[in-house]
Amino acid sequence: MNNTADDAVRVLLVDDQELVRTGLRGILRPRFGFDVVGELDSGEGVVEAVARLRPHVVVMDVRMPTVDGVTATRLLGDVPGSPPVLVLTTFEDEEILAGALRAGAAGFLLKGVPAEELQRAVPGRDSYRFAAATFTEIGAKGLAAEFQALSAR
What we know:
Elements: E1 9-14, H1 18-27, E2 34-40, H2 46-53, E3 57-61, H3 69-77, E4 85-89, H4 94-102, E5 107-110, H5 115-121, H6 140-151
Parallel strand pairs: 1-2, 1-3, 3-4, 4-5
Helix pairs in contact: 3-4, 4-6
């Protein structure tokens, strides 16, 4: 998928670990149709960064210092026209993930998924919903039902 810069999906990365952001930048690179337009190490300032950088999607960690991903997702949800949020986490905790979905996340993935799965999960710039989310064995049916109920809105 070799897209021009105009066709690329503009991505804002929000994760407190620099190593993770570096890996995500490598996965979401122009060669695969993405343009990482900015990075934050906390959910603090995400609303301002979205207004300034105009990403098509925000890829956000759940647990971060200062302002966590659930809170930042909720703040973005209060701003009309905000891009969808794909939550990434290393924690297989149904309650945290359900909280992220209730806060307005459009989907979630565990950080251990293959790179291709992450690339498929990030929506195109014209998408309003994620086509898929990866559910693990932990509470998969409950999370799937919650995701479907929230997606039906």
